[in-house]
Design a protein that fits this description.
Largest sheet: 2 strands, antiparallel
Shape: globular
Mean pLDDT: 89
Strand order of the largest sheet: 1-2
Low-confidence stretches: none
Helix content: 40-55%
Structural class: mainly alpha
Number of helices: 7
Amino acid sequence: MTTFHPIVLKCPQCGGLMNDYELMSYTIHHATVYSDGNSNQHHRGKEISICAVCHLPFWRKDATLPEDPDWDTEGLGGPIDIYDLPWYFDENVQELTIEYYKDLLDNDFAYDDEKEIYLRTKLWWSINNIVRNLSTWRSARNMRQLRGIIKHRKKSLQLYSKYKPLLDENLDRLIFLNIKSSEADLLFLANMYREKDDFKKAQDILSKFSGKKGKAYHKIKRKIRQKFSRVIQTS
């Protein structure tokens, strides 16, 4: 069962008030999880919102007002997010999403390690989304579908290659931040090195992993041996 708690937000930039909610709990029936930590869970909490008045982004923790039963919130609109931006349904939405998170990082929107990890993870996912669910020729039912799949794969892989240097640069920083935290998940860290094409380092770290060696471990280990660096589904 999914439950929500109403809150009031005040934009740190313009002071505009907005009605919104916090996700308190939700039930997961099935989750598809990928090696970069992304999944198909649609009810994850939001960390960033965009003001409905000035259209500038803000961290929700910086904008949430203390609970007050006397708040007069009638008629207040809600904040928007990236899915509401005018360009979100453009043909080049993948590139625009990547540039959106890159711009936030370049403009020092993240002012501590936790927020930087969040933004860099979003950037990582947005680049991986280019190749996350590529169809294979086996899914083609006829020659027309096969030609469409080949064309789409070629276009997607070219776009991914364009952003691979940015992906590697972003992963370098994520690796540093994860190691700095002294609580690095070795399996996750090994995968980051794998996606950076540093398969030797990935194997060295994986050999130190002492947790439960489940499906994700064996899939990542196999892809390291195959020298395959793109994101993979782990469950």
